[in-house]
Amino acid sequence: MLETFFTLYLKIFFMMTPFFVLSVFLSLSKKLSKPEKTTVIFRSSIAVTVASLTFLLFGKYIFSLFGITLDAFKIGAGTVLFLSALEMIKGGGEIPETSIKKGSDFSIVPLAIPSTIGPGLIGILMVIGAEMSGFLGITLVILSLLAAVISLAGILLLSNKLQHLIGEQGLEIIPKITGLFVSAIGAQIIFSGIQGFLLQT
Questions:
Q1: Alpha carbon distances (Å) from 152 to 20, 58, 83, 91
Q2: Alpha-carbon 95 to chain mean position
């Protein structure tokens, strides 16, 4: 049970691209005071939690509404994950400064959406949500999600210390390493979808 929780936690946490979110937060919060930064992190965490729970709990109904099979969605979501991972490895995915108004509240857009809740996270939450069953399974997934959100909030709260510790080059290298793990998760989801499709035929 502990192993399952840890596996789910890591999957969700990596899909939140924490170090990319950290770099976005650092670039957009330069002129904010410490209390203002804390408020932004709190608002963003609430938004991420609500949006993530929505995709997690109601994703299977979206499948039913559009007549999408879980295996087909796994292949599609896995492909999106893999492409997102390639962007991370190449160093893509930056938020254009022109899209952010000076002095505006960026806790929801772009910090929560699309920096944290991107196509990859949405895809894996919907896949996990469609596969979970029973009270214990649902509780385990929700706790894993909440642990991932809290971990991300902790990283942002320690953003200044991490920036000094890791350095500018570290903030550029770590997302690329994370991208390798994300690409592996994406490939695994694709293979799982193909295997499920072949077993049905």
A1: 11, 23, 23, 20
A2: 16
Helical segments of the chain, H only: 2-15, 18-28, 34-66, 70-90, 119-131, 134-157, 159-200
Q: What is the rounded distance in angstroms from the CA atom of residue 128 to the CA atom of residue 110?
A: 25
- CA–CA separation, 138 and 141 (whole Å): 5
Stretch 162-183: mean pLDDT, rounded? 81
* 113 DSSP 8-state letter: I
pTM of the model: 0.80
Helix axes 134-157, 159-200, angle to 10 degrees: 150
Instruction: Tell me: pLDDT of 54 over 70.
Output: yes
d(CA 131, CA 154): 29
For residues 45 and 42, what is the distance between their CA atoms, to the nearest angstrom? 5
pLDDT tens digits, one per residue of 131-157: 888 899 999 999 999 999 999 999 999
Question: What confidence tier does 50 reach under pLDDT thresholds 50, 70, 90?
Answer: very high
pLDDT in tens, 88-120: 788 755 544 444 444 457 899 889 988 899 878
Q: How far apart are CA 201 and CA 182, in angstroms?
A: 29
